[in-house]
Every structure is written in structure tokens, then in C-alpha cells.
## 1
Amino acid sequence: MALKRSTANGQQQQPVAVKALYFINNKVPNQLVATEVHTDGQVGDPVFYPTGGDGSSIIHRDTGKDIPTDTLSTQDSVKRMGNNEPLRRSVLTPRLRQYLFACNAGSNTISTFKINPEYPTELHLFGDPVSTIGDFPVTIAVSAKLGLVAVATAGIQNGLVVYNFDEHEGLCPDGLGVRPFGINQFNPPIFEGDGASDAFFSEDDKLLFVTVKGDTMNDPGFLSVYPIIGGNVAVKDVRSSPEGTHLLFGAFQIAGTRKLFVSDSQFGTVILKIGDDDEGDTVAKTLLGRVLPVSKSAWVTNPVTNNLVELDVETNAILSQTDITINKTKGMLDFVVPGNFLYALGAATDKEPSSMLVLDISKGKVEQVQNFVYDFGTGYRSQGLEYYA
């Protein structure tokens, strides 16, 4: 594991600050994959870290085998905590406040890693994996301001579990157990069955959102909203099933508004208005996939096609569509847009390794830059994507 640069005479220099990407290979045992992001935006030099737990996959209803792509059927199975705001339960400096949390769906645990801020592909497992109480954890939400980590589970005992996070003690359950979704599922969950898709705190840290997929037309799924009361997540959520939605998936809050931009795997994307009543706005339905905001655009990918779609976050209108020809495995999973580049985890097959796609979006159009293929240790189960800068 190369963690330092060497000079011409062989003497080691101090670690060089770089950027990094993280995902899990979701295997048994599970590993967190840390990949360096170079100064030109391209990626390489991956390092693998055991999480101390096991990965798993949602299974096909008919065959009983792993689904071939998008094996957790969620976003945010890996999540980073760290910014310039002091943690409620911490007195450490902002320089050291960088942590990663990773789902171990096969062992019903969450792992915590410390990130070396001088060289962020150097990680250290922080304590033992912590039980999720519920079955099959799939998505994580964090609030550095509140010092809270929330995990949604999708198996037999499904629901939301919340932890207080302390930089000395790590994750500590809030003592309220699993806030149940009440979904009839199995271990592992069955695809296409109900289950949590994404979880995230509102930008003012006053609400926690969970998108939950439905199963049949008589079971449309729902958006679950938990108020934050006294710095803690409420025991009871407020649920709604917006008209026309069915398989709510990846989502984010449109900055400065009371609106959510949400993808629905049945038809495309919608904009939902969050209020004190049932009022909501649903606008033009477009292409299905995952979403992530950048400026006034939302980007949507699909795990079974290489079509990248850019949409306007205010009108939901399509701004551009690009066929990503450098991705040889036909599909894109989780992705991040930290600036001028879009990084997407390429969907793999049972015989092919994962890849990391690098796309330059800074020139008013999508420019394909790199398809970095991992030599070993990845594959079709790989999930999640998080970024460090």
C-alpha cells in the first residue's frame, strides 16, 4: 500500500494530500475500496480494506439467486461524515473530522473507518462493526451537525435505526431500537419487493427522509419523514405516497427549497414539495435511475444502460443525454459530482470486474475521460460511492 511519495534518492516525503473515492465490493467478507483521484481528475491506485463484516445481495424472486446488478437496490450504502462544522459530541479539530460508514448487509452491521486527512486512501477501522438490530442494512444518512448516523434496513426486521456518533466512543444506538417500516420481506430481501432506497437529512437538519419502494400497484411505497426533535430523530415518521409514484429511489433536497428531486424506477423522476399538509407538486416524468445534484442540474443514471441524463432541478426538463461508450459493461450505479467531474461506479457482471467512469461535465457537454477497470477484488456486487476532497 503506497502511502507516501518517494524522492529520487529514495527518501520518503511527507504524505501528499489527494482526493479519493470509496465503495464496497459487497462480498463475503466485505471490503471497502479506496481509490485515489489524481490532480487531473483521473483515478487509480485502489486499496482494499476489510470491513469486519459480510456483504450480501437481494435475491431474484424466481431463481433464488443474486440479482445480476445493483445488488442492494439502494443509494448511499457508503457515507462520509466530515465538514467544517463542529460535531455536537466532539471537541476535535475539523482536520480530523472525517469518517466513513459502510453497510454490511450480510452480517447486519455497520463499519466505521477513520480517514487519514493527509492521504485519504489510508483508512483505519474504528472499533468493531456495530449491530443494526434490524436485518439487511442498505442505506446510511449522516448529520455532522447533530452527530447522528441513521441506517435503514430492508430484510425481515426492516426499518430505521439511529446512532449517536462520538469521535472517542464511535457509534452508540440511541436506545429506541428499530423504527419499523412494517414491510413483509425476507432475509435476504426479494427483488422486486418493498424496501428502503435512500436516506438523508434535510439541509437544515430538521428532518430525516427515507424513500421506500413499493411492490405491486396496490402497494405503492412511500416517502418517510422523521422530524428532528431536541437534536434526536423522532420515533414516529410521517408517511405519504405521492400520486403517480411507485418505486421511489434516489433523492436529494433542492438547495434552498422545500422540494425533493426524486427518481422512481418505474417511470423516471419527480419533484415533490414538502409541507405541513399533503400538498405536493409532481411535474414531467422522464427517465428512470439515480439522481445527484450539481448546480442547477440533476444527473440520472441507470444500472442497465449507459445513458446519462441531465435534468433541470426546477422544471425536471431534460437538458442533455449522453451514451457513455467507454463503459463496456452496460450500466452505471452510484455516482458523485464533486465539481467538474462526474464519477460513476460501472455496473459489472458475474464474470467482469467493476470500473470507475470519469466524465468531464465542465464544458457544457459531457466529455468521456477514463474507464478505470479494477484488476481484482470487485464485481457485480459492488455498491455505493462516496468522495473525499
## 2
Amino acid sequence: MNLRHIKAFLLLILLSCSVAQAQDENKGVVIDKIVAKVDDYIVLKSELENAYLQFMARGEITQGDVKCQILENLVINKLMVAKAEIDSVEVLDVQVEQNLDQRMNYFVQQFGSEEKLEEYYDKTMEEFREELFDQIKEQMIVQKMQGIISDEVSITPAEVKKFFAKIPQDSLPYFSTEVTIGHIAKIPEPNDKVKDQVRLELLDIKDRIEAGIDFGVLAQKYSMDPGSARQGGELGFFNRGELAPEYEATALGLKPGEISDPVETQFGFHIIQLIEKRGNRFNTRHILMMPRPTLSDIQETKDFLDSLRTGIIDDSLRFDILAKEHSDDKQTSGNGGFFSDATGAMRISVEELDPTMFFTIDTMKVGEISKPFEYKMPDGKDAVRIVYYKSKVPPHQANLLQDYQKIRSAALANKRNGIMSDWFDEAKGEVYINIEPEYDYCRIMSD
């Protein structure tokens, strides 16, 4: 997603959050309006129109009336949220905060700084978080319900071909230039001296807490976990197996109120206080400190990646195998280091590349591997990577030979939508649903 897409995406979110309150000052009439209501949850006309514009801009493959399909999906989403309340399916606020942290870090990275993001939209980071929190929580609840309802759906090649054959030729999307690119990313490992210093700092903080200073106050001041730091370090209740193994083992070995010595996980070093245990669930708070690598640590990582690059160029080593073994980017390492789009296809539009990657491959030839260079990962961590520019496909109209993965994904989504529609038919009798008469032609409430 490039900067232009980031700005458009954020703007659509903020418009959908605020437009319901907009009024014509002369007439006192609400500009936006409710097009559907599911119990206490509403679908706004702006929400429908924005979703439609986003869908059309992506050039996705579909069948039938797009706007009706989107409205039905929005209504189903609201029903899933309402049903989640009835069925006690919940998403913890701390999980929403963690998701929100990742998104905001990504947005900040694309804009260059928090100040630039705030200046562009004339909103503070806190205002962004407040406006996005409820929407992201709803999205996470919907995802959880979708997993319960239709996660195990599969599709055969014959079903994919049948789906594609039903799409009118003039309705097939036209894809822009697409590329296959991968990377091997390494997070420089801080040396032992730096780690020891962090341990000593955390032990000092532990001593201060045990001397009477409030844990929450020090968490807000020192913890590098922004989501929990705002809550005084508290993470909320988790089940066994949901947190880092080292963190969980330490936490469950404590008595309520007891504070651990520093413990290392993949995220850094923590001191942990157990607040409460309820069977297999436990609530803790922590202070996280992340040791920073030195310049020599970073150079050591660059030297390591350069040795991998030399081995690949000499044809003695395979890029995909090395990425699986060594890359610290877990989102791509499973794909042999290659990036994928929303459908899972390892060929992505150049329009969707982040600016750093776009300008990197713009200076490369197909088949080349870059020299190691520093960059920031989506979560904000400093890292070093080498980039492999494997292939480039010119603009073309969708076809089974070149775009099978995209078409398969669309066919699978269509099948899942059918399952969701069946679920909707069964569940809609349990809640109040009203859809504006102007959308009667969509026949969403028809039996």
C-alpha cells in the first residue's frame, strides 16, 4: 500500500466515523443517513458508498450487483457483532489496542513521522485512536465470527473454472503492472553488554516498585509497549498458550502481587507482576524494555546478509530456503521470503507497494538481489534486508493462466459468501433487522 492509498484509506475511515454527525447548518438536516439497522447496530449510507468505492478501486473479480453484495455483507457483519454479544464471543480491549498500535505504527512509517500524519489530517494521534478503536474492534469481532462460521471452507479447481466461466468478458478486471519480489529481513541482535544494561535498568525499576512506587506509574514512564503502558502495564486476561512461552511460564510461576526478575522474550525484556489467576486464565501487567543494537551489531547483520547474497548469486544457495531459515519477517518467511497480495498470490501490483520497496526495485533489474540496507519493519522495529526482484508482469486482463490464484481467491470468497448468506438466513430471525425500502431490489431479507 503506497502513500496515496494510505491517505485515501485513512480518509475513508475518518469520514465514516464522523459524517453521521455532520449537519446542514441552514436546514438542520443530517447529511448522512441510516440505510440498515441490526438491533443497536447501524449501516450508514456513507459506509456503503465508501466500501463500494474501495471495492471498485481494487479491481476485484465478482459476479452480480456489487452494491447489493456489499450491503448484504455489511448487514451480515452487523448481525455477526450482534450475535457475538448473544453468544458471548468477545475480543478483549487490549487485543484491539495491540492491533491499533500495529496499524498506527504502519501509518506513521508511511508518512515519515507522527507529526506529518497529524499535520496532514489536523488530528492528534490520540484523536485517531479514539475514532478508530470501535471500528477496529468491530472488525476483529467480525473476523472471529467468520472464523467460527466458515473458516474450513475449501474449493476445487473445477469450481474455480466454473466460477470464472460465469463472469462476462466485459466484467473482467484489468490488472496493472505486477511484480514478484521477496526479501530476507534480519533484526540486528543487541550484544550481551547492551542486554545486561537493560536487565540492570529493569532490576532498578523492580527495586523502586518494591520500595513503594506505583507499578502503573513506572509502566507509563518506562514501558516500550505503548498499548499496555497506557493501562499502567496491564495486559488483561489471557488463556494459557496465548502469550510468549517465556512470559507465560514466568507469570504462572508467580503469586498474585509478586514481581519477577527480568525475563527475555522475542519482544525484549520484561518484569512481570501477576495480578490474578482464574483457572486457565490469568491477568498480568509488565514493563517492557527493548535493547537497541549498536552500530557494530548492525554491521554484523549486514555482513551476514551480504554472505547470503553472495551465495545466492553464485548459485550455491536458494533464496526461498534461506528466507525460510533466516528471515525475521514472519509474514513473508513462510512464502520463501516473497510478498503476497490479499488473495495469497505472490505477485502484487506496483501500486500496492510501500514507497520504500517501490523506489528500491525501481533502481533494480529483474533477477537482481540488492545489497543489504537498513529499513523499518511494519511494527516499527529497525532491521536490515536484502531484496530479490524475481519477475515482472505487464498490464493485462484477468485470465486463468496468469491469475489463477486471484480467481481462486475470488471463487472461494464467493463460496464463503454463500455460506454466510445461509447463516444469515438462519440467524436473522433472532434479531431486529430493518433495511431502507430503496434497497428492496437487493432482496436481502427475502426468504
## 3
Amino acid sequence: FFSGYLVNSCAFSPDTRILLTCCDDNKVYVWGAQTGNLLRKLKGHKGPVLFCRFSPNGRFFASASRDCTVRLWDAQTTECLQVLRGHSRGVETVSFSPDSKQLASGGWDRKAILWEVQTGQTITQLLGHRDAIQSSDFSPNSKYLATGSWDSTVQVWDLRTLDKIKKKILEGHKGNVSCVCFSPSGFLASGSWDKTIRIWKPETGKLLTKLLGHLTWVKSMAFSADGLRMASSEYSEMVILTIFPPSWSLATLPTVLEVAHVCAFTPDGKLLVSGSADHQIFGEGTADPLAQPT
């Protein structure tokens, strides 16, 4: 895979047939995940595209851009269905609810917006962070939305009563919280510029453990489908694979990356993919390379 520009984010379709990448050239790239062939370059954004994600039902994908918008796309036709306007500054993150009916976005205006996917209408705005929101994720049971911010906190929003949303503020990181990610079993992981990953119980806000091992900023995290492995990339060539309890063992994966900006598991958990500042996407570890058919 080669895009020619900085790869900011990548995402697999639920059926593992499509890989999305988004770049600083204002485009979203659509790849055949089994062949490595470039299928489409999607234009429309007027600024660098910073994040992309598929909906769990595979019908949609969303892209977030420095142009202050979120674009919602039809996964089958790659048609842009909605341009979501509501942020006043660049949008850093988007995430879908497990039922694919809601979309959350967050960015440099310090707010998260909850959208209705079907209509593109705003459901509510979530206010409280003191600096830019850089990451977001829904819990597997749809009860919670987690947001990570440059204010060094993680905020967990209880979505069960939308008319009166409560939140927990998770403190402890000593730097920008660059990524948050729920495990399939419901644990919450947060990665930071303080070189640590923290694992939380979202219902109570209790810190369960702190993972050390990264040598520089944690850039991206992803859980395997079984929840037993977590990959994390940092602002260097390093990708770390963490095996979850009871061992909490760490393994450093060999890469050929300049800087491992992003990482993602395929939905079946057999392949780990990382994207880099040298514009390329690489398959790692547990399965055949992406260019080889399965």
C-alpha cells in the first residue's frame, strides 16, 4: 500500500475486504485489503483528513478533517451522504455507536458532538474539556462514550439519559491523551504523550493498571476482536503488542516504518496493520501479508 502522503488513520471494513486510509492531501483512500489495489480516491474535504472509521454494520464510514467537517459516506457506492457541520475548528476524531445509529465527533473547539447517522442531525453537544479533543470511542454496550483530550484527561460520558448526561473525569496522565479505546469486554484504555497506557474501569473511573514500555508518545491503540491483545504505536518505529490478563506481557514488533502513526487489527484479529509517516501501510505478524489472498 502506498498513498504518497502522511497516513493519519486507517480502518478496516467489518468484512475485512476494504481498508481505508486518510491523509494530509485532503483525500480518503479506499483499498482492496486482499490485493493492496487502490480502488478509489475520495475528494471533498478542504483540509487534511485526520481520522476515518467504518460503522459496525459496514454500511457507512466517516472521515474527520481539519476543514471543520465530518463526512459520512456510503460504504458500497463511496458516495458522500452527509457533510456534518457543527465544529468551529478542525475535527480530530469520529466514532460510531455499536448499533451504527449514532456518530460522535470531537476536535479543537473542545467539544464532542453526538450525531444521528440516518439524518445527520445533531443529538447533543458534550462540553467540559479544557482543550482539544483528540480521540473518542463508544463502549461495546453503548452506555458510554469516552473522549481523550489535550487537557490530559479522559472523560467518560454516560449516554443512558441523553437529556441529562453525566460524566466521569479520569485523571492521572501527565500529557495529552492521544487515543482512547474500549476493549470488547468493556475495559477502557487510554494512551498519552506521557509514554504510558492506562487501563480503566469506565463504570467507576477506577484505574486498573498502568502499562509502561513506550519510549515516546503513544499515537494509536487497537484491540483484537477477542480482547486478549492490544496493539499500540508510538511516535517512532515501535509497535508494542500487549497480551492481556493474567500475564500483561509486552512484545515489541519489528517494523520497517519511519514513524508508526496508526495501527489496526483486522476484524478477525489475524492481522495487525500499521501506517507510517513514510506514506506506507504494512501488515504485521499473525497472518499472510495484505497483498496475498486468503
## 4
Amino acid sequence: MTRAAGKSGGPLSYPWGTLHRMDIVIRRAEPGEYAELGEITARAYLGDGLLDFGESDEYLGELRDVAKRAAAAEVLVAVANDRVIGGVTFVPAGGPMADIAREGEAEIRMLAVSPEARGRGTGEALVRACIDRARAVDGCVRVVLSTQRTMHTAHRIYERLGFARTPERDWNPIPHLADVMLLTYELTL
């Protein structure tokens, strides 16, 4: 069973509700979990070959800096058996963590699941939590995200949940490297 939970482990009273799937709890990350989630995210990106410069990639520091993300957006974690197994950054409306969100849009960033927890619905549960959260944000009409071409499992999750490709919004985060292009998706709420 997946459920949203508060710091005490009990159900949250978030207006965006509760998720139910297997034994995974989706909730806001706590400061004591930031380092662990940062390592899960960094390992996932490194292990999947998503960083152009491997261990020396500048983005690796951003992936590990969960405290910075939590100060500017909402960081959600997936927990199973009292262990963090994944996380995502939900950007409700612009701000320093938004890459492509426009007015009336929320953005999903840095979705990662530990390798040993993959295939259990964790990634989908995290994306669903972001969708539910976006529905609770006043004036939010759409959820957007960027993804790499090789993130095929994530693409399947997005498409299964109703996201559509928006090639007109694809963008290059490293302009001096012409072959680095992020694909974009959106979900109208």
C-alpha cells in the first residue's frame, strides 16, 4: 500500500490526498533524509549513463544538493520499510527550480529511484503524487517536465499517465554542446 505520511508516520492532511500502491509511502522529504536522497539521485543518473561527464559532471552536485532543492521547491520521497527508495522535486509555480514551467504550470524534476527498488511502481507513484499535488495548486492547469532521450522507462510512465510530448518546448541545457537536447512532456489537468 502506498500512502502519504507525516513526520510521525501517520497520514498527512495534504489537500492533494493519499496514494495507494504496495508498501510505498510518498511524503515530503525530511532534512535527515536529504543526503540519502541525494546519493540515490546521483547514483541513478550515473548508473543510467545520464551525465555526459560522469563523475566530473557539474550537474552531479545539483543532484546531490537536496537541501537546496527543498529550500526552493517541494521534495517528495518514496519510502518502503522505513528506507528512502526514491524521490522527486515538485516545483509548484516557477521560482529558481523551474526550468521550463510557465505561468499556470507546475514542473517535475529529478525523478530518481534506487536501482534495487525499480520495477515496483515507485517512479509512477512519485509522478502521481506530483500530479495530485499540482491539482491542489490554485491556478495550476498543467504539469510539465524535461527528460533525456534515453530515459525510456520514465517516458513509458509519463505516457501511461497521460503526458504528451511537446517537441516545440525541447531545449538544450548546455548550449555549447549542440547534441544535448532535453525532451519535454506536459499533462493538462
